[in-house]
Design goal:
mainly alpha, Growth Hormone, Chain: A, 77% helix
Length: 448
C-alpha cells in the first residue's frame, strides 16, 4: 500500500499544535521570567536555570521518539505531551505565586513544573515533526516546515500581548488565572487539531509490531540510528548550527545598546527587525523550493549551506559595525542575519524530515528525537556560551566593541563549520525523494 501524502489542511492542523505549544512556552520564557526578576526580586540566573532545565531534560527526546516508533502511533504522544505541558505551565504560575511567601517550596515546585514543560514540549514536538516527515510529500517539506514554524511564532506573537492585557493590574492570582486559561485553550485546540490526522494519513507500511526494527530495545535502536552515517553527521550539524544560532540571540540587543547607544525601545525594535528577517527568510525558501524548484532553488541542501554561509557573513558585518562609522546600517545587517538564519533553519528542518524517513523503517521517531535533543541542548547551551563569552572578553580586554566583535566572529566560524558539515552529510536531497521511499540502504551513497 503506497503512502498517502498529508494535504495542506493536515499540515495546518499540525501547525495548530505548534501554535498551542508556543502559546504556553512564551508565558514561561517571558511573563513568568519577568515576574520572578521584577516582582519577586530574584536574581536573573534563577529563571535562567529554570529555562535551561526545560531544555536540558529534552536530551531524552530520542526515548520519546522511540516510544512512538514502538507503538506505531504519534497522536497519543502529541496529546499526552500537550497535557503535560499545560499542567507544567499552570504549575509554574502557581509556583511563582507560592514563592512570594514560601521561596523554597515555590522554587521546588517551579523546578518540577519546568521539567514537566520540557518533557511535554519534547514529547509533543518530536511526534509532530515525525508525523510531518512520514506523511508530507517530499516536494512540500520546505513549505510544511515553514508553515508549522510560522504558526508556532504566531502562538508567541498572539499570546504575549493578550496575556499582558489581561494581567493588568497584576496580581499573583491573576497570573494563575491567565496561565490556566491559556493552557486549557492550548490543550483543547491541540487535541482537536490532531485528532484524526494520523488515521487519515497512514503511511501504508506494516504496523510497528510487524516491523523488526520496532521491536528492538531502546539502546539497540539508538545505537543503530547513531551508526547510520547520515543520521550521525546530521546530528552533529544540528548541534553546531543551533549553537551558532542561539549564541548570538541574547547578545544582539546588549551590543546595540552598549556600542551604538540605542535605547531599550530601539533595541526592541531591532530584535523585531531580526525576527522579521527570520520570517521572511523562511517564507522565501518555502516559496523557492516548493513553487520554483529545480536543481538550485529546489535543493534544501544548497539552501542550508547558503543560509549558514550568509549567516556567517552577516555576523562578520555586525562584528565590524562598531568600527565602520555612521554610514553603516546596523539595521540592515541585523535583518540580513535574520533572513539568513530563517533560510538555513527552515531548509534544515525540511532536510530533517526527509532524513527521518530514510534508513531502516520504524526508527523515524528515534531519529527525530535524536536531532531534537541535539537542537534543545545546543539552544540551551548557546545562550549561556554567548553571554558568558562576552562577559569574559569584556573583562579581559577592557574594550566593549572588541569583545563583542570577537564573539560574533567566533559565531561566524561556527556557521562556516556548519556549512561544511551540511555539505558532507551525504544524504539524498529530500526534494528529490519519492514519497513511497521508506529505506535508503547506504545513506552515504544515496544521491544528492
Amino acid at each position: 500500500m503506497s503512502a498517502t501524502p498529508l494535504g495542506w489542511l493536515g499540515v495546518v492542523r499540525l501547525g495548530l499544535v505548534q501554535t498551542a505549544l508556543g502559546s504556553i512556552v512564551v508565558l514561561m520564557t517571558s511573563t513568568i521570567n519577568r515576574v520572578m526578576i521584577i516582582e519577586l526580586a530574584l536574581p536573573a540566573f534563577v529563571p535562567g536555570l529554570l529555562v535551561a532545565s526545560h531544555y536540558g531534560v529534552q536530551i531524552l527526546r530520542p526515548a520519546w521518539g522511540y516510544g512512538s516508533d514502538v507503538g506505531g502511533r504519534r497522536t497519543p504522544w502529541i496529546i499526552g505531551g500537550m497535557g503535560l505541558l499545560a499542567l507544567g505551565g499552570v504549575g509554574a504560575a502557581v509556583a511563582t505565586a507560592l514563592a512570594a511567601t514560601h521561596l523554597v517550596l515555590g522554587m521546588s515546585l517551579a523546578l518540577f513544573s519546568f521539567l514537566a514543560i520540557g518533557v511535554g514540549v519534547g514529547a509533543a514536538g518530536t511526534s509532530v515533526l515525525t508525523m510531518l516527515a512520514t506523511c508530507v510529500a517530499p516536494a512540500r517539506r520546505a513549505a510544511a516546515a515553514t508553515t508549522v514554524w510560522v504558526m508556532m511564532i504566531l502562538g508567541f506573537a498572539v499570546t504575549a500581548p493578550l496575556a499582558g492585557h489581561f494581567l493588568d493590574p497584576y496580581s499573583h492570582a491573576r497570573l494563575i488565572e491567565v496561565t490556566a486559561a491559556v493552557a486549557t485553550l492550548a490543550f483543547t485546540v491541540a487535541t482537536l487539531a490532531v485528532l484524526g490526522v494520523e488515521k487519515n494519513n497512514r503511511d501504508g507500511r506494516a504496523s510497528a509490531a510487524e516491523r523488526p526494527a520496532a521491536r528492538q530495545p531502546f539502546r539497540e535502536a539508538i545505537r543503530n540510528v547513531w551508526a547510520e552515517p547520515a543520521a550521525r553527521r546530521f546530528t552533529i550539524f544540528i548541534f553546531v548550527s543551533m549553537l551558532a544560532y542561539s549564541a548570538q540571540e541574547l547578545i544582539i540587543e546588549p551590543f546595540a545598546g552598549l556600542v551604538f547607544g540605542m535605547t531599550p525601545g530601539e533595541t526592541t525594535k531591532l530584535a523585531g527587525m531580526q525576527h522579521g528577517g527570520v520570517l521572511t527568510g523562511m517564507l522565501a525558501v518555502a516559496f523557492m523550493a516548493s513553487f520554483i524548484g529545480g536543481p538550485i532553488f529546489g535543493s534544501l541542501k544548497l539552501w542550508t549551506v547558503g543560509g549558514c554561509v550568509a549567516s556567517a557573513v552577516s555576523l562578520v558585518a555586525i562584528a565590524a559595525s562598531g568600527y565602520a562609522g555612521p554610514g553603516f546600517s546596523l539595521r540592515a545587517a541585523i535583518f540580513a542575519l535574520g533572513f539568513s538564519n530563517g533560510a538555513f533553519a527552515v531548509s534544515a528542518i525540511g532536510s530533517m524530515m526527509g532524513l527521518a524517513a530514510s534508513g531502516a523503517s520504524a526508527r523515524e521517531g528515534t531519529r527525530m528525537g535524536l536531532w531534537g535533543a541535539a537542537q534543545a541542548v545546543a539552544f540551551g547551551l548557546g545562550g549561556l556560551v554567548g553571554t558568558v563569552s562576552v562577559d569574559i572578553a569584556r573583562h579581559a580586554m577592557g574594550e566593549t566593541r572588541l569583545a563583542f566583535a570577537l564573539v560574533f566572529l567566533c559565531e561566524a566560524a561556527l556557521f562556516i563549520s556548519s556549512a561544511a558539515l551540511a555539505l558532507n552529510i551525504g544524504a539524498r536531497d529530500p526534494t528529490k525523494q519519492r514519497a513511497t521511499s521508506t529505506r535508503v540502504d547506504n545513506p552515504l551513497t544515496a544521491g544528492t
